Amino acid sequence: MAVVLDRRLSSRLRWYRGPSAPAAAELSLRDPGRPGCWVLNTGTELDAARMPPFLALLDRAVHSSARIVVVDLRETEFLSIRVAAMLSTAKSEAWAAGVDIRLLTDGREVERALDLVGVRPLFRYYESLDEASEPEPGER
């Protein structure tokens, strides 16, 4: 039996080795300089192994005095399906607490994961961090 490899597709394969130490350090919560808003930077990879620290930071932001929490996924190259699905639950729990979770995305990989689990329609599209951190009209 012969094995035929199509070398044209080999460049599309990427071995996933889990988050590197620098990637894990990129997960952070910061103040964008707008009252009532926090920005959660997710780094380059947001997988199941990084879900507990991500959830802890998200929970901390939601239960602070913030009215808006922006999850910044612009630098994220890999978004786990499990994490994407969890965003639906996080959005509804935050909404019950009076907090709006907003996503800021920039990559096809992230958008694909959000579409696959069906959570993309729950979040508006934002062009920039300034736009995402701005209160809706009438919310001020």
Helix content: 25-40%
Number of strands: 6
- Biggest sheet strand order reads 1-2-4-6
Distance between the termini: 69 Å
Rg, alpha carbons = 17 Å
**Mean pLDDT across all amino acids:** 84
What is the overall shape?
Answer: globular
Q: Give a short account of the largest sheet.
A: 4 strands, mixed
**What are the low-pLDDT stretches, counting only 5+ consecutive residues below 50?**
8-13
- Beta-strand percentage range: 15-25%
Order of helices and strands: HEEEHEEHEHH
List the total number of helices.
5
Q: Which class of secondary structure composition applies to the elements?
A: alpha/beta
Q: How would you describe this protein?
A:
- There is one protein chain.
- Residues 8-13 have low confidence and may be disordered.
- The strands form two sheets. The chain has a four-stranded mixed β-sheet with strand order 1-2-4-6. It has a two-stranded parallel sheet with strand order 3-5.
- The protein has five helices and six strands.
- With 140 residues, the chain is an alpha/beta fold.
- Strand 1 (28-30) and strand 2 form a beta hairpin.
- The chain has helices at residues 21-25, 51-62, 81-96, 108-117, 129-133; strands at residues 28-30, 37-41, 45-46, 68-73, 78-79, 100-105.
